[in-house]
Design a protein that fits this description.
Blueprint lengths: L1 H15 L4 H43 L5 H40 L3 H18 L20 H15 L1
Helix pairs in contact: 1-2, 1-5, 2-3, 3-5
Length: about 160
């Protein structure tokens, strides 16, 4: 069930640059019911830890607009189904996959040095201002630099869960 939700979320992210809240809500409810039905009280604890850890790992990236809020919520759905340990593995692999995709896009669009310079300037501004600022404004976002993070999360999910089954 969660694999199907991930594929739907991946499609929405690719086509619309967002993941519908209705899909996230369905995922959270189904994951909660799954944990309650199969694992009772321990399942509720697993669900809470899974969504909590996912939130705390990704929310800071969302605050500065490095990833979308939908990506945070999608990771919470994964955490609700699989708990924090497996979700952390999935997120680590997703970040690696996302980095490879990002590097590939930068090489393809020939903007690697510009993007690295942008990151360096951003880092300098954060240090100079001693305050976290948005990484990119919405008007700066275009297909040359956007990474649909639901895709690396889905790939990582199938890699990790495929090894468990």
């Amino acid at each position: 069930m969660n694999g199907i939700l991930l594929l739907i979320a991946m499609w929405y992210d690719w086509k619309c640059y967002r993941i519908p809240n209705q899909l996230i809500l369905v995922g959270l409810v189904v994951s909660f019911l799954y944990q309650c039905f199969y694992y009772k009280e321990e399942g509720i604890e697993t669900w809470l830890w899974g969504i909590g850890i996912s939130f705390f790992i990704l929310f800071p990236f969302s605050l500065v607009r490095m990833i979308g809020a939908g990506d945070v919520k999608l990771a919470m759905v994964i955490g609700g189904f699989w708990g924090h340990t497996i979700t952390i593995k999935i997120l680590c692999i997703a970040f690696i996959i996302g980095a490879v995709i990002s590097l590939g896009k930068m090489l393809w669009h020939r903007n690697l040095f510009y993007r690295l310079q942008y990151l360096a300037n951003y880092t300098f501004m954060v240090i100079a201002r001693r305050k976290i600022i948005k990484y990119m404004e919405a008007k700066e976002i275009d297909e040359k630099i956007v990474i649909h993070f639901a895709i690396p999360m889905a790939i990582a999910f199938f890699v990790v869960v495929g090894k468990l089954i």
